User: Fold this.
Amino acid sequence: MNIRKQLHVVSTGKQPDRVLINIMREIHPYISALHVREKSKTAKELVCLMEQLTKAGVPLRKLIVNDRVDVAICSGTRGVQLAHHSLDLSLVKTAFPDLTIGCSIHSVTEAIDSEQHGASYLLYGHVFSTSSKRGIEPKGLEKLNDVTSQTTLPVIAIGGIQPANVCDVMRAGASGIAVMSGILEAQSPLQSVIEYRNHLEVWDEAYI
Assistant:
């Protein structure tokens, strides 16, 4: 995978399984990873969702489970995304050294700490204003650049990212972007994901 132009999609937790599965059946060839972020689901329900996604053609190597290390291991997915409330990174890394482990971070200090304890990549945000973080000031491109300049890990930027600002985000040192409603709740998720992908390709050509 080209680490310079990753496109991650994060489930909203609001869509019925059948809707998410149908969308992913169409768009998975254009994305690098799907983060299954379904906080209200039980472990059994998450495993069932993983099975349905793979039956729909989504490769296990593109599936990342939010928070639930047990589900990631038992389902054989690509990895797990840890948040501040999740199991300690060092514990997970020690128990499952080959598991891809992403860490959600919000500062340079957290980025450095995550790298030192074995994270595979970082998810940083929110970069721009977004309806999912109403009333919380966005980090902005300058702080994104601060993070990317202080770690050797791939940094995936999230939060209010639109096709028009993809190149600005990448210019700030990100290795890719993560999108939720901008793709999954778009009138045409397929057209939307292609538009995001095209902007990443334009950036990559300019980078080279």
The chain has nine helices and eight strands. The longest strand covers residues 100-105. The chain has a mean pLDDT of 94. The CA atoms of residues 52 and 155 lie 29 Å apart.
